[in-house]
C-alpha cells in the first residue's frame, strides 16, 4: 500500500514517536529526565511518523553511523532503530510505507547501507535486509573456570567509575582497539550515554573493568551482575555487555577477571563473535558452553554500486553478478566483480541474487555457494560460484559487536 501519510518528524513530535515505539515493545514510556536524555539521542531529520489524520500510528528512526567493510574502508550507514506500528493498525502496510520512505531518504542522503537489529526475523527480508553478521552466547560455569596453564597474561585490570569511563575513556579506547573487524559499526556520540541509561533502567549497576598492558590501556569489559531467586538459594549471573581486547594478554585477563568476581555462578556473554575461542582460555574447556547462534546485523545495501565498489575482494577470476532490488530500482543491474574492484557491466550475469541475499554475502559471513545450495542464488554458470566465494571471502569473520 502506498496511501499512508509518512512524514519526517520535527523535534516537537519526537516524544509521541518515542511513546508509540515503547508501547509497541511493551515498555513503559520514559518520563521526566529520562525522556529529556533520550530526546538528545534523536538525530535531526532522521525520524519518520506515519499518520492517520493527526494521529501518529507508526514510526521509524535511524542514527548516522558507519560500517567497516572488508578491506578496511568505512561506508556511511544508517543505524535503523525505534521502529513500531500501533497495535490497532498493524498488518495494513504501515511499516511497508515507512520502510519505503526511509530507504529512499537514507539513499538520497548518501548512506551506502542501512542496518538494524530485528525484534523478529520474519519482518525485514522483504525490505531487502539480509543477515550479514551473527553472534553466539558464551556461558562460563565460574567454579570450573580455572585458567589453562600457559594462557597469556600480563598487565592489570582495574575498575573505573562507569560515568567517567563512558564519558571519554571507553569511546576513545573503542575507536582505537575495537573498530577493525569487518561489520564493525561507528558508535554515534550518544551511544555511550544510552548504554548507561539502559543499565539504570534494568536496576543493576553497570561495572566497567579496564585492562592496562605494558603500553597502557588495551581492553575493557562492561558488565552487570544480576541475582535471581531469593537469598542464598538465588542464582547470580554476570552478564557481559561489551568486551574488546587489543592483545591476547588483555583478552585472557579480562575473561579471567569476569570469572574471578566473587559470588557469581555463571558468566554469560550474549552475541559474541562466532570465532572467539573463549573455551581455549580455560583448563577445563567444558566450563564454557557456546550456543544460541543468532542473527546480529540485518544489512540493507541501499547504494549497491557504491557498496560493491568500496569493499576489497580476494584473488580470483572476475564474476558478473546480477542484482535485483524490488524497492530501490537504481540498484538493479549487472556488476562485474573482480580482484581489482567492482562496477556496472552490460555483460550477462553468471550469478543472480536479490539484494537481501547479496547483503548476507557482502561482509563475508556466508559464501555465495552456500546460499546457492538453498536456492538463494540463481546460477547460470556453475564455475562462477567458486570464484565468487574466493572474491567475497573476508580475512576475518564479520561481527558488529554493537547493539542498538
Ligand atoms: C529495528 C527495530 O526497531 S525492530 C522493532 C520492530 N518493532 C516491533 O517489533 C514492535 C511490534 N511490532 C510492530 O510494531 C509491527 O507489527 C511491525 C512494525 C513489526 C510490522 O508493522 P505492520 O504495519 O504490521 O507491517 P506491514 O503491514 O507493513 O507488513 C508488511 C508485511 O510484513 C509482514 N509482517 C509484519 N510484521 C511481521 C512479523 N512480526 N513477522 C512476520 N511478518 C510480518 C506482514 O504480514 C506483511 O506481509 P505481506 O507483505 O506478505 O502482506
TrEMBL record:
A GO molecular function annotation here is: aminoglycoside N-acetyltransferase activity
Give the residues annotated as active site: 124 (proton donor), 404 (proton acceptor)
GO BP field: aminoglycoside antibiotic catabolic process
- Domain Enhanced intracellular survival protein, residue spans: 304-400
Name of one Pfam family that matches:
Acetyltransf_9
Residue ranges occupied by any Eis-like acetyltransferase domain in the UniProt entry: 183-293
Q: Which residues bind acetyl-CoA?
A: 83-85, 91-96, 119-120
Question: Which Gene3D superfamilies does the record match to this protein?
Answer: 3.40.630.30, SCP2 sterol-binding domain
UniProt KW Lyase keyword = no
Q: Which UniProt keywords apply?
A: Acyltransferase, Transferase
For this chain, the family text in UniProt reads: Belongs to the acetyltransferase Eis family.
UniProt subunit comment: Homohexamer; trimer of dimers.
What protein does this entry describe?
A: GNAT family N-acetyltransferase
What organism, scientifically named, is this protein from?
Solihabitans fulvus
Q: What is the lineage of its organism?
A: Bacteria, Bacillati, Actinomycetota, Actinomycetes, Pseudonocardiales
